[in-house]
Amino acid sequence: MSKKVFVKTYGCQMNVYDSNRMVNALKPHGYEVSETPEDAYLVILNTCHIREKAAEKVYSEIGRLKQTKADMAAEGKNMFIAIAGCVAQAEGAEMMKRAPAVDIVLGPQTYHRLPDMMKSAEEQRAAGRKSSRVLDTEFPADTKFDHLPEESDFKSSAAFLTIQEGCDKFCAFCVVPYTRGAEYSRSIADVVAEAEHMAKNGVVEITLLGQNVNAYHGEGEGDSTEGLAALIRKLAKIEGIGRIRYTTSHPRDMDEDLIAVHRDVPECMPYLHLPVQSGSDNILQAMNRQHTREDYFKIVDQLREECPNLALSSDFIVGFPGETDADFEDTLDLVRRVKYAQAYSFKYSPRPGTPASVIEEQVPEDVKTERLARLQDLLNEHQLEFNEGMVGMEMDVLLEREGKQAGQLLGRSPYLQAVHVDLTKEYNAVDESPDRAYNGYMGKLVRVKIAEAGPRSLKGELVSVLP
Ligand code: 5AD
Ligand code: SF4
Question: How many CB atoms lie within 10 A of CB 197?
């Protein structure tokens, strides 16, 4: 009988990718995916450490699972709990101590060993040990990418592909260099092979993932390493790959070659997430971002010169320790100058173990709240303006899933906007049940004329299906 595995994924797209890889590592060992934790043989929480009180939230989730585990045990059923991801990495042995219901704690670099860890946990439990404990949060020399089997069942025509992990930048507020470890890039050949496999299985759009994706330097031919620009040029040649995106980039690694890719490679989408965090030189320096606001403007100007329709996105932190009103005004000024198509913004919150968390001059909560609201008003205004500018235009949309309303499919524009496409007319014309008719459009790149724009999405009508 197959064993059910339920995975709950928190945080970034890299975790989504990792969760799929964990499931794929387990499948050959008789596991199948379950949609709920109840009745699951193995529950995995793939955790994220970036948001505030992340660890506390994981502990309370474990508290709930503990009850499910006890209920199942009362019925004579086995359940194992594994905690993966960045909180597991950061907490490690502490989590083992504090949460006895947890059977396995594994860090982001050891997913390929999960089937072995399960075996060991099962053996311990079968031997009658009260608790079966496995802890594996090393940064091993062999990488998980060398071991994990390939996914074959892609749910969407848009997929993530992790090409790089870890970070050596040590921004003062960030836990990533501690939880994900040093920068590591997969080889060009490895990434190309995975992308070819994806294309053969119906994937049209690939988003290359990495905490510092544009610092990518994968082993190429001979002893040389090649950067992200060279990788994108190679991936663009794969038959079936129509769109390439990459995230997240650091301004320091935005080199000329990569900027030229936006100009020269049509498959490289005109959208770039380039976090700046703050518009104040003082704060950028205190954050250890290793660039000034002027450096950032230069990159943006250059990008827009080579790729005039490029949509930019960013992350911002307000209320970093020591941020004054004048610093914050500099951030608003930067936003006005760059005009983002969309952005994420957060109040600074201290992460244990990071240099910024021990700076004494913390900004009061009410000041952070007020600054965040002002920043978000401005960002929202720009985002709506950007979206409204699309009305009347025709653009390519990759239809990825069913919309909320019947007869509607949801896709993404080249600029990553969500686009609802109403296909009721088309369905009626072919007199097919929506389910069958969906198949004609789902996963396809279509030409759409934009009819309406809102703050978060667009609506459009089908013009044609692209070959
Ligand atoms: N406080 C607030 N926001 C943070 N981020 C990372 N660490 C913190 C923190 N300590 C934000 C940054 C980053 C995004 C992924 O999360 O803006 O780019
Ligand atoms: Fe964190 Fe990004 Fe800075 Fe690296 S570059 S430390 S991942 S914010």
Answer: 16
The beta-strand segments (E) located in 309-407 are 311-318, 342-347, 394-402
Tens of pLDDT, residues 2-33: 899 999 999 888 888 889 889 988 998 999 99
Please state the atom number of ligand 1 nearest to the C-alpha of residue 277: 17
Q: Is 174 in the pocket of ligand 2 (CB under 6 A)?
A: yes
**Cβ–ligand 2 contact at 169 (below 6 Å):** yes
Q: What pTM was estimated for this model as a whole?
A: 0.87
Q: How far apart, in Å, do the first and last CA atoms of the chain sit?
A: 44
Structure tokens at 328: 């914050």
Whether cis (ω within 30° of 0) applies to the bond prior to 179 is no
CA distance 245 to 207: 4
Question: For residue 76, what pLDDT band results from cuts at 50, 70 and 90?
Answer: confident
Residues in CB range of 10: below 8 A, 6 or more apart: 45, 46, 47, 48, 54, 85
Q: Which ligand is nearest to the CA of 253?
A: 2
| Token reading at 415 | 């600029």
CA of 173 relative to ligand 2 center, distance in Å: 8
Question: What is the Rg, in whole angstroms, of the alpha carbon atoms belonging to the chain?
Answer: 23
How many beta carbons lie within 10 A of that of residue 251, not counting itself?
21
User: Encoding tokens for residue 269?
Assistant: 């989408």
Bridge pairing between strands 80-84 and 31-33: unpaired
Q: Are strands 225-227 and 217-219 parallel, antiparallel or unpaired?
A: antiparallel
Residue 197 has pLDDT above 70, yes or no: yes
317 lines ligand 1 (CB under 6 A): yes
Q: Which domains does the chain have, with CATH numbers?
A: 3-136 (3.40.50.12160), 144-388 (3.80.30.20), 394-465 (2.40.50.140)
Give the H or E element holding residue 200. Answer: helix 188-200
CB 103 within 8 A of CB 121: yes
Classify residue 407 by burial, with Cβ atoms within 10 Å: 0-12, 13-18, 19+: middle
